Amino acid sequence: MKRSFAIRAAALAGAFALAACDAAFPGMDSAETALDIPEVEPGEISEETMKTVTETLSQDSFEGRMPGTEGEEKTVAYLIERFEAAGLEPGNQGSWVQEVPLVEITGKDFAPLTIAGGDTRLSYDYGEEWVGVTYREDAATSLDDSELVFVGYGINAPERGWNDYEGIDVTGKTVVILVNDPDWETPGLTGTFGGKAMTYYGRWTYKYEEAARQGAAAALIVHQTEPASYGWNVVESSWSGPQAYAQRGENAPPLTKVNGWVQRQVAREILAAAGQDLDELTKAAKEKGFKAVPLGLSASTSFSNDFRSFTSRNVIGVLPGSEAPDEYVIHTAHWDHLGRCKPAPDGDDICNGAVDNATGTAALVALAEAHANAGAARRSLVFLAVTAEESGLLGADYYAANPVFPLAQTVGGINMDAFQMAGPAKDVTVVGPGKSQLDLFLERALAASDRVATPNPKPEAGYYYRSDHFAFAKRGVPMLYVDGGEDLVEGGREAGAAIARDYTENRYHGPKDEYDPNWDWSGVMADLQLFYRIGRALAASTNWPNWNEGDEFRGVRDESCAASDSGC
Fold first, then answer.
1. Which residues contact 247 (CB under 8 A, 6 or more apart)?
2. How far is CA 22 from CA 412, 436, 442, 543, in A?
3. Residue 238: which of 248, 255, 223, 226 has the closest Cα?
4. Looking at residue 21, what is its pLDDT?
5. Is this model's pTM higher than 0.70 or not?
6. Is the pLDDT of residue 461 over 80?
7. Residues near 529 by beta carbon (within 8 Å), at least 6 away in sequence
8. Per-residue pLDDT reduced to its tens digit, 143-157
9. For residue 220, what are the β-bridge partners?
10. What is the CATH number of the domain that holds 374?
11. How many separate domains does the chain show?
12. Cα 371 to Cα 159: distance, rounded to the nearest angstrom
C-alpha cells in the first residue's frame, strides 16, 4: 500500500533541490530516446466532475467503500453510471465489471502477545503494542511457545549473495524481522539493495512470503516510522478489522500462522530480555554474512477468525481506438477504502477515503470524459477502477494475472492514487524515475505545462512497489507513477510539506479523510492535464516504450513481447 502524502511530509527536512527533468530521470538510455511522442492539445477536463464524483464516493452512505459490503454495491453501480455517461464502452466483453474472487478474514478475541523464557514473562496488548492477522482460513489461530529468532531483514536473495536464513532452520519458529532493506540509510542510489532506494525485498509482503517459504510459524516485523514511511497509527488501522485476500487455489504457496508487527520499543524489550541489543543487532544485520540469532525465548498468542468468501469487482471502461483498437493505454485507480475503522475521538468510525482514493477514482471519470470529448485516439484507452488495493493490491493483481486486454498489447499506463489538495505546484514528484521510456512522455508533457520533475525524495520507502501499477510493472507493462508537486506556487516546499504532514498525521487512513467543499482543486486539475497529455500521446504514438536497459522489469517485457504475435 502506497503512501504518497508521506513522501511529501518526509520532504520537509533536506528536500531535494528543484530538479530539471533530465536530472529526475537517471539512467535514461540516450540511444533509445528517439520515440514518436505526438504533440497534444490541452484536454477539456471537468473540475465539476472531480468534485461531484469525489464527494459522492466519500459520503457516509458508501460506508468507506469496503469490498464485499453494501458500500461496494453503491460504488460499482455509480462508476458504471459515470463511465457510461462519459462515453465509454463496457470493457469486459460487453460487461462493465471483472469479478475478483476474495476471502475476508476478521480476527477477534485477541490474546496478548506473550514472551517467555527462563525468568522472562512479558505481555503486550493487541493494537497498542502489536497487531497480527492470519492468511489461513482457520476458525482459531494459536501460536504456542514458538521459539523466537531474529533474522535481520529477512531476505534471501541468491543473485545478490545475501541470505539472512542461511545456517538456521526456522520451521515452526517465530521470526523477528527489520523493516526495509539493509542499505536504506545509505546516501545515494547504489548498493547491494539499491542504496537509499527500497527494492521489493524491503516490502512487508516479501518478508512474510519468505518467512512462509522458510517454514516459519509466525513473522513479526519491527515497526520503525522512518524506514516504514508511516507511523504506528497506520499499521494499527490497516491491520485491524476485516482483511481481504485473494482466494487460494491448488498448490498455493505456504503460509505462516500469524503475520504481524510489533512496536519498536516492544522489540527492544524482547531483545533485551534475550540479552541482546536492538541497535547492535540492526547494525550487524546491515552487513553481508549476517547470521540469524536465536533468542532463547518463545512467543504465544491466540485469536479467533470469522471468514466469508465473496466476489468483488473491478470496473472497466474502454474508448476504442480508431486505427489500432487492439493496442491499449491503461489508466488505473483503486475505488476501495477501509470501510469502518478505529473511531475518531468524536465517535466517527467511517473511513471515507475522500483523498485516498475517491480523488483518483474521480480522475478516471474526468479523464474518460475529456478523451471521449476529444474523439477516438489511434489506440484504445482503458479506464480501470480496481478493488482491494488497501488489502494488498488484490484487484490490480487479479486483473494483471487475468488481463481482459493482453499485457503484450498494453502499451503502458498511468496510475492515480490520492491527489494532494494544496493548490498549484511548480513541479511533480516522480516515483521511480529512470525506470522506463515513459519518462520521455512525461518530460514532453511537463515542458508543455511549464513544470519540472522532482525525483522521489524518499526512495527508501519503495513507493513504486506499493500501488496498483506494480501489479502491471512486475509483469512487464511500463507504468508511470507521478505524484503531486512539492514546490507550491504559494509557500514553496515548506508549505507543501506542511500540508502533506497534516494529512498524514490527522486524516490518512482515518475517519477524517472526508470531502471538504473548500478544497483548492487548481493543483489537481493541473496534474490531470499532465496525465491527459501523457495518455493521449501514448494513444496517438506508433512506438512501444520499454523499460530502460538494466531495469528489473526489462527482461519480463522483452520475453512477453517475443512470445506475442501482435502488440509490442
1. 101, 102, 103, 309
2. 21, 13, 11, 21
3. 223
4. 29
5. yes
6. no
7. 42, 43, 45, 449
8. 999 999 999 999 998
9. 176, 260
10. 3.40.630.10
11. 2
12. 44
